[in-house]
What does this fold into?
Amino acid sequence: MQTVRTQTIRNLIKDTDLKLVSGNADTEITSLVYDSRKVTKGSLYVAIVGANVDGHDFIAQAVDAGAAGVVVEKDVEVPDSVAVIKSDDTREALALLSAAWFDHPADKLKVIGITGTKGKTTTTYMIKSILENAGKKVGLIGTIEAIIGDRHIPALNTTPESYIVQDYLSQMADAGCDAAVMEVSSQALKLHRVSGMTFEIGIFTNISPDHIGPNEHKDFAEYLYCKSLLFQQCRHGIFNADDENLEGILKGHTCTVNTYGIEKKADFEAHDIELVHKPGYLGVNYKVTGEENFDVTIDVPGRFSVYNSLCAIAVCHFFGVSVEAMQKALKAAKVKGRIEMVKVSDDFALMIDYAHNAMALESLLTSIREYNPGRIVTVFGCGGNRSKLRRYEMGEVSGKLSDFTIITSDNPRFEDPEAIMKDIETGIKKTDGKYIMIEDRKEAIKYAIEHGQKGDVIILAGKGHEDYQEIKGKKYPMDERVLIADKIGRAHV
It folds into this structure.
């Protein structure tokens, strides 16, 4: 739903560096589009230079479809009746125009942006949970979905294109939301998906080498720099004091600064951390000190859960949330597919997690090892039509850090599942880790539960929040929670 139906070019480009190089500034624009196939009479078409396609090649098509104006980086020839707006970067232009088109919705909300290699999704949901517990109405934009009121919209990107971001924020404002919390990827910052808006709070969780390669970041320095850009467009920044790259992230920041951490001096510190391992249960207790002082219990295991919850506490402190509301919400906070504990037995614990690369799996298994389980049993596969290196690496990590691995299928896509499993086996054979191969994921999960031993932690890795399996271009329903429920004979888990 668009809150603004028409705007003049003059109004759209005011307060920007965009230049009207030909045409009438008072031209009425009826829609803002960046896909030439969606141009209708009166549209303003933004020509984006993509990795594979250049939107400038479709200017003539857009004009034929009725475009009243075009936004370009290159010199183009159009009829005199069509306005031409020039920009150094049309991706940035799209962001600025989108913010103006929707009447700058970020100014009507307290927008919280979270960037970091790990922890964004969990922290996002934690913050939403606590603020809602305190009586706030909160929208969400993230890796899994966008949430606007009662509507859940599946996500295609961690951070959508700028037009969609502004559309979602506008709908949140119209729905009476007080705040919006969103994941902000380095790619989003690099490609200007959040340009043209000011965040009330920007958050840095951590950074480690990731998303480096073709069509992403050329090196770690660029990755770090892109993440740091968030802190040049937020009023208040909250940072992980323990991250070794904090100084680099802070470079050029224009916001006020608060910190959280476990190891270094910070505004919000965690002390007396207790990893709780009870029959069929893993969790964490600790005491937060500094700007807040109270006891915390989280039903999500791992030291990284301490970091995520500390960050959420720092945000909610900023909003003036009561201690009682924070404690209650933190205890209840869960994220589908992110270290999601599923009660199966009093003898062993079982969790579902999205870990789908070697770095994420290593972090997860290392964290669980701190609980001194009887065994770590890891069930996972790898996606088809993706890097074989990922398969080798994940196999090696599981072989080293799990006591037993069940190699199975994930999303084979157009590849042979058995061939993918063989690649994983190549990695695990570099270790002395014990393993079995069961192609049918349902049977693999069944085997893991049936052979669970007292004190085990069983990890179903890779699928996380996904409730399907993709085979030869088709998605088949497959929710691991349903498979577990079927196995243990319960209607709901």
